[in-house]
Amino acid sequence: MTAPPSRILIVDDDAAMCAMLRTSLERRGYAVETRGGAAEAADALRGGDVDVVVTDLHMRGTDGLALCQRVVADHPNVPVLVITAFGSLDAAIGAIRAGAYDFLPKPFELDALVVALDRALQHRALRVEVARLRRAVGEARRFDELIGDSPAMRRVYDLIERLGDSDATVLITGESGTGKELVARALHRRSRRGNGPFVAINCAALPEPLLESELFGHVRGAFTDARTPRAGLFAQANGGTLLLDEIGELPLPLQAKLLRALQERTIRPIGSDAEVPFDARIIAATNLDLDQAVAERRFRDDLYYRINVVHLELPPLRARGNDVLLLAQAFVERAAAVAGKRVTGLDATAAARLLSYGWPGNVRELHNCVERAVALAQHDQIVPDDLPDRIRNHQPLQLPLVGDDPAELVPMEEVERRYILRVLAAVGGNKKEAARILGFDRTTLYRKLERHGSSTP
Questions:
Q1: Which is nearest to 56 in space by CA: 37, 72, 33?
Q2: CATH assignment of 406-451, among 3.30.70.1050, 3.40.1180.10, 1.10.10.60, 3.10.20.30
Q3: Does residue 244 have a pLDDT over 70?
Q4: CB-based burial of residue 442 (10 Å sphere; 0-12 exposed, 13-18 middle, 19+ buried)?
Q5: DSSP class per residue in 191-241
Q6: What pLDDT sits at residue 303?
C-alpha cells in the first residue's frame, strides 16, 4: 500500500508566493494547502490533517512568530518552518525561541525548502513514535519495574494478582536475566505483607558455613569471631518476604536444614539449643531445571515439593515479541536521564536488529546493550552503529529441513533430529522447556537425543 502524501500548510499573505510554492511542492509529491493569514491557518489546523506548517514571518494581522507560538502550544507534534525576506540574526533567534523547527531566509532555493521539509517530517514522525512508545511503556508498566504486554507476561501479571492475598510459597523459574527478583518484589508489594521487609539472599554467592549463619543466625561464641549474636535472614524477614535466590545451588546439608525450617516454621541459630519461630513468606527462585537436579540427586525431592507450592515460570525475552522494544524504550529513557543526553529512542533499523536477536542473556543483556548504546550515541536516536557487534551483525538461525532438489531430501529421522536440536537451541538448552514445546515428556526427549547421538546439544 502506497503511503499518503505528506500534508503541508503554507501561510503567506502573498498570494503569488503561495501559488508558486503550492505548484512546485505538489510536483514533488506533497499535498499542499495555502492560507492567507493566521486566522485561516488556525481553522485548517483544527482539522488535524497537517504535517508541517510553512509560514511567512511578516504578514498583515497576526505575524508568523505569533502563529508559530500558537501552533507549538496547540499542536506540539506539528513542526513549523518560518520563511522571511528579512533574514537577520534577530529574526532567526526570535523564530527559534517561538518554537520554530527551522528558519529559511528569502530568497531560498526550492531544494533547500524540500530538504527542510523532509527533516521536519522526520522530526514529526520521531515525536509521534516516541510519544506512542512512551504511552505504551506507561501502559505496559503494570507492576512497577516489570514492563511488557505480551501474552506470556500477561499470564505472569495475572498470577501475581491472584497470589496477592496468599502466603503460599512460590517457586519462580526462568533463564538467567529474565527478572526473577523483580517478580518476587512485585509479589511482595502486592501481598498483605507488602508493608513488611523484603529480604533477599543469593544462595550461590556464599560458602556453606557463612550461608548457614546468614540464613539462621548465630549466638555469641558459636564459632571463631562470633563475638556478638546475629539474627538470621529468616528472623529479619518477619512480617515480610524472604527470597531464596538461586536455591538450586544450595548445598545438600543446608537443604535438609531449610526443609525442617519450612516444615516447622522455626529456625535454630548456630550454637543455640532453642527453636525460634519466624513469620515470613518464602519465595524461591532458580534458573536450573530442578526436576533434573532431583533426578540426579543434587536437590532433595522433599524440599522441591515444599517450595514448589505455586510455580511461576518466567518467559525468555526471545518469546516476548515486541516487549523487546517496550523494554528498550524504557531503558533508553532511563539511561539518557542518568547520562544527561538527549537520546529519545531507536531508529527503525536498530529496532529491527533488536527484534531479530535471540537475547541469550534476556532482559539483563538488553539493558546492558541499551545503556552502552546511549553512552555511544551521537544523535537523538540510537542507530545500528551504536549497538554491540554481536547484535548489529547477528543473522537469525535458519535451519532448512528439506529442499526442492530430490538429492537434498533426508529421512524423517534426520528431520526429527534437526528439529529437536533447533528447539533446544531456541530455548538455550533447557530440556524441560524443549520437551514441553515438542510435546514429549523429558524421558522421551533424552531417549531421542541418545538415539540421535546428541545427548549433549
A1: 37
A2: 1.10.10.60
A3: yes
A4: middle
A5: STTTTS-EEEEETTSS-HHHHHHHHHEE-TTSSTT--S-EE-HHHHTTTSE
A6: 97
Could you tell me if 141 and 330 are in contact, meaning their C-beta atoms sit under 8 angstroms apart? yes
Fold category of 318-392 in CATH: Helicase, Ruva Protein; domain 3 (1.10.8)
Q: How many residues are there in the chain?
A: 457
Distance in angstroms (rounded) separating the CA atoms of residues 438 and 445: 9
For CATH 1.10.8.60, list the domain ranges present in the chain: 318-392
E strand spans, 347-421? 381-382
Q: For the residues 271-277, what does the mean pLDDT come to?
A: 89
> Do 355 and 391 touch, CB atoms closer than 8 A?
no
Q: With 60 as the cut, is the pLDDT of residue 409 above it?
A: no
Instruction: Output the DSSP codes for 373-392.
Output: HHHH--SSEE-GGGS-HHHH
pLDDT of 237 strictly over 50: yes
Q: Note whether 431 and 457 are within 8 A (CB).
A: no
Q: Among residues 44, 56, 46, which one has the least CA distance to residue 9?
A: 44
Whole-angstrom Cα distance, residue 133 to residue 139?
Answer: 10
Q: What is the pTM assigned to this prediction?
A: 0.63
Helix/strand/coil (H, E, C) string of 262-277?
Answer: HHHCEECCECCCCCEE
How far lies 263's CA from each of 135, 169, 170, in Å?
Answer: 46, 12, 15
Task: Assess contact for 270 and 228: CB atoms under 8 A.
Answer: no
Alpha carbon 442 to its chain centroid, in Å, reads 32
Q: How confident is the model at residue 41 (pLDDT cuts 50, 70, 90)?
A: confident
For the 7-137 domain, the top CATH level (class) is alpha beta
d(CA 446, CA 457): 11
Residues carrying CATH 1.10.10.60, the chain: 406-451
Contacts of 431 (CB under 8 A, 6+ apart): 289, 292, 424, 442, 445, 446
287 or 411, which is more confident: 287
410: Cα separation from own chain's centroid:
41
**Do 278 and 241 contact (CB within 8 A), yes or no?**
no
How far apart CA 282 and CA 240 sit, in angstroms, is: 9
C-alpha 357/C-alpha 150 separation (Å) is 17
Looking at the domain covering 165-315, what would its CATH class be?
alpha beta
Which amino acid, one-letter code, is at 294? V
Name the residue among 20, 39, 7 with its Cα closest to residue 106: 20
